[in-house]
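Backbone-to-sequence.
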């Protein structure tokens, strides 16, 4: 799969979900001698931001796509998962249950997943044959192997390094900050550093 993706014969995405609380993890920082830096704690109720994202690092057009919502804006359930797969990742012309019977993607698309309950749900199992006919297959990683997913480091970097503000009193501000950080990472995929000399 990876070799086919590298030469542009297959779209290969790693998909995963993540959550961002209004008080983000802290690691280390700098401060004047004798001054103790403090990060105010904000309770997550109603202000947590939940993400679903998919990353393609190889092929002719590397992409990072995601959908985000705050608490109270709907759950990232099986329906949201399938909508994201059909619309944002595979870019199908319709939902899985409304595809023309003869529709097949120009390139096959493989989506690599962990074994979360949403990914293994009855709704996703029911949709899998129709998606496969359209050229979209789901590939499940072995249990407890996040190191095999290329999108896991993206969540970690956004959580630990990309957000300079570590505590958000407002859920909308956290939502905007996470979306902005992901947008920068998506833009960087389009203009990777190793292409700069070639462009010059």
């Amino acid at each position: 799969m990876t070799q086919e993706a590298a030469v542009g014969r297959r779209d290969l995405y790693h998909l995963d979900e993540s959550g961002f609380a209004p008080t983000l993890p802290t690691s280390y920082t700098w401060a004047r001698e004798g001054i103790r830096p403090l990060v105010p704690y904000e309770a997550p109720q109603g202000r947590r931001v939940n993400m679903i994202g998919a990353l393609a690092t190889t092929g002719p057009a590397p992409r990072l796509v995601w959908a985000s919502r705050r608490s109270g804006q709907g759950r990232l359930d099986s329906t949201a998962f399938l909508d994201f797969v059909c619309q944002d990742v595979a870019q199908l012309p319709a939902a899985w249950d409304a595809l023309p019977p003869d529709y097949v993607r120009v390139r096959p698309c493989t989506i690599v997943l962990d074994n979360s309950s949403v990914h293994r749900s009855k709704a996703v199992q029911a949709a899998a044959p129709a998606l496969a006919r359209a050229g979209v297959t789901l590939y499940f990683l072995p249990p407890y192997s996040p190191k095999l997913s290329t999108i896991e480091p993206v969540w970690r970097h956004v959580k630990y390094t990309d957000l300079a503000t570590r505590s958000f009193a407002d859920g909308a501000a956290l939502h905007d900050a996470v979306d902005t950080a992901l947008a920068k990472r998506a833009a960087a995929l389009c203009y990777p550093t190793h292409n700069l000399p070639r462009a010059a």
